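Working notes for the structural subgroup meeting. M.R. asked for a predicted model of this chain before we commit to crystallization trials. I am recording the input and output together here so anyone reviewing the notebook later can reproduce the run.

Input as submitted:
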Amino acid sequence: MNPPRVVSKPVCDAVELQEPGISLDSPMTSLGTYRGGLPADAYISSHYLEQERQTVFSQYWVCVGLASDVANPGDVYPTDVAGIPIVLVRDRNHSHHTEPPPLRAFHNICRHRGLQLIEQPCNVTGRIQCPYHSWTYRLDGTLNGTPHFGGYHQDSYRGFDRDRKGLIPIRCEQWLDLVFVNLSEDAPPLTEYLQPVIARWADYDLSLLRRESREIGLECNA
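Returned structure, recorded in token form:
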């Protein structure tokens, strides 16, 4: 059995850019000072990637998957945004029985010791369970079980507020089959953010789009 994965690396490490005149505190528009286009390092440098994580991927809407990847109640789909592990979760309970159960996004870490909860896409038949101390969470993110947390055969202790120890939610919205998340929680509404794309494709009935799995083989020189 593989050892549990501890998620401890912060998304915003102190990284200094080697390019003169550019730092992590500078806006991405500073890269526009290159008249002849972006330098090669903008595509391959870990320094530029870190800047994009802080100024783009963590601040705006990012597409993280397809709703059809979590189509059934209990489906979970782990991924990451800006170096942060997240998980998409299809709940079982919902108030509108004519609509699919809610699709939610959470930080994919246990609130106890910070271990990653979900490693691979799967269907959770009961609760989401941490592989370390077996804390469990309902599909709506609320904390369910904390075995022996208060001592032997004692799952709680005086003053422990389990309502504040649920999974940390992430703002999540859907357009067509595309699922978007916003880590900073303060981006404009998704439809407003996507309005240029929606307007450009207004002449097409996008509701007719369907997902189709297909394999294409290409012969090429490696």
